[in-house]
Amino acid sequence: ASFQCEVSKFPTSAERATGGLVGNIPLICGGYSGGFQKSCYSLKEDGDWKDEANLNTARMSASTGTVIINNKLVIAGGYNGGNGNLDTIEVVAPNTKSATLPIKLPVAMHAPCIVAWDTDTFMVISGHDGRQRKQTLFIHTANNSYTEGPKLQTARHWAGCNTINVNGEDYIIVAGG
Prior knowledge:
The chain is built from no helices and 14 strands. The chain has strands spanning 18-22, 25-29, 39-43, 49-54, 68-69, 72-76, 89-92, 99-100, 113-118, 121-125, 136-140, 145-148, 160-166, 169-175. A hairpin with a 2-residue loop joins strand 9 (113-118) and strand 10.
């Protein structure tokens, strides 16, 4: 009952930004605010937002879902106006320079959902490459490769995805979009 949390107003409108928890630090990157954004803002313990990292490629509508690999937030795909849909994958953390991974998505897209598979692999689920997608991909960061996964029953983008454990069995769920 005595807990209080005061957070400063976010510094930009950051429409269609992406983010997640890196360690215990909320990190929000990209988006659109009168132009495509590169900035990544972290939330400090005092409730203020700090611009402390930049993406290599300005983008909005990048992946939903949160994947952390080697203590870095994974950001896949997105949209960049004149460059259209993006096929790049970046990793970023507070107070570090963003890195673009050598592996690219096989199709440039925006609004896929991503979910961790293991310590070096994540899934890219659905997305929009000019049309909604049923495809899923396993991105293997250890050897910079990908393999195709099972197709969804319904094509979608802007979906939510996460892991769930039912009776000791792990599943990945995809909803909405």
